[in-house]
Amino acid sequence: MGISVEHLTHIYNPGLPYCKTALDDVSFEIKDGEFVGIIGHTGSGKSTLLQHLNGLLKPSSGRIVVGDCDITDPKTVMRDIRRRIGLVFQYPEYQLFEETVAKDVAYGPLNLGRSEAEAEAAARRAIALVGLDYDTIAERSPFDLSGGQKRRVAIAGVAAMEPEVLILDEPTAGLDPRTHDEMLEVIRKLHCEKGNITILVSHNMDDIAKYCDKVLVMERGKLIMQGTPSEIFSERETLEAIGLALPPINDLIVRLRESGAEIAGDIFDIEEAEEAIYEYLKGKKRV
Fold this sequence. Notes:
There is one protein chain. By secondary structure, the protein is α/β, with parallel strands linked by helices. It has a single domain, classed as 3-Layer(aba) Sandwich (Rossmann fold), CATH 3.40.50.300. The protein has twelve helices and ten strands. The protein has a six-stranded mixed beta sheet with strand order 6-7-8-3-9-10, with helices on both faces. A hairpin with a 7-residue loop joins strand 1 (3-12) and strand 2 (20-30). Helix 3 packs across helix 4 and helix 3 runs parallel beside helix 6. The N and C termini lie far apart (54 Å).
């Protein structure tokens, strides 16, 4: 299963003096099993795009095909879209509402028509996938959990519906560095174990470079670049022109090269950078 977005355009308040084109003729494809990152400044169209991918918004023109289903077709049943595509909003812990963790995570599967036994089994699997123990946490109130635990439970609630596409809008926003890293590992684990399409919106260029197979760059409603992390982050001047930076490690390597250091390859990982710099310095000492 893949995703095909064809000439997607969305205009807010069409025909009125304050109408705004939020998406302008956006087209791209995502292959089955890809981990895709979307970057761009606030107002670039990222959130509007996500809401189209989940069927929350309908386009002014264009279409979106997920697998064999045109989700922009008015005849498409919304429940079918929700079953296939899961969306985790920014600060998803604010979406928790049930009296226990077990009920909150099982709510989605129940709403899709699954039996109580099936919903409980799905909740157990999802809670384990996000690194929590079901028996320990199931009967606790989600509001008594830590911030990181709340976010894991919120993601589990979407994962329990076993979507073919998982969309996450800034899932690490507001988290401390340790919990941030743990949350990204949870998302990576979900992606690897389920083999689904994962779409991540983030302002953290390190995360995009480390986890994504493909990167989409949005600017003022247009898709201005798409490619692998190496391809995108090699366009330093283009990114800087729209106010985006390279991942810090990659930026360091680029600056070292500009100062004359002969360091080859695309490097986004701190361990790889450490090794490359060590090998360069060791070579200079031999000379």
